[in-house]
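Help! Submission page says 'invalid entity' but I think these are all valid:
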Amino acid sequence: DAGVTQSPTHLIKTRGQQVTLRCSPKSGHDTVSWYQQALGQGPQFIFQYYEEEERQRGNFPDRFSGHQFPNYSSELNVNALLLGDSALYLCASSSGQGGGNTIYFGEGSWLTVV
Amino acid sequence: GDSVTQMEGPVTLSEEAFLTINCTYTATGYPSLFWYVQYPGEGLQLLLKATKADDKGSNKGFEATYRKETTSFHLEKGSVQVSDSAVYFCALSDRISNFGNEKLTFGTGTRLTIIP
């Protein structure tokens, strides 16, 4: 059973560029969330997608956008990259029904902005 | 809003020592509580969880009890091993809506190093 898979693993971008990160949820999961983890910090919630809609957003600017596809996979897009966007981006998946469900994380995409 | 306060690190212990990592939380409702572990260069792995007051989560010799009266969820292990060296994150979950699922609020993490 494949867990949460993310791509790419590492990437380097230049300030002002745009980046797209991809995530496939764990089998049977229909909810995908994205988190940003800066070096030495805990992950911060960016947004969550369920039924192809953004359900809630954390304190991130509109430069951060996302999408969920009918197969539940998801993309995170960041426009006009800043040096401060350098971080580990984690995708998490869970089942959308009920509460107290376990949230599983992928290994993340390391983004470096130079 | 919700928040999690974790014991500052780094923490260095000798093998077979007793471990406690403190975690307290602030939440408006009745969240579920979690400990996640992050090994070097890897993503987050769920270590244990508790979904209601007085529940005890346990896994791989680690334990934590959901204490509503003290709003705490301290992580303990009786005898640590070198392989336990990692960063440990305390987190709480909050339901987003009836149509979505929880989002996690994390503490800043505690780096644990075990010396042989």
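Support: the input was valid. A stray whitespace character was the problem, and the output above is from the cleaned input. The two ends of chain B are 41 Å apart (CA to CA).
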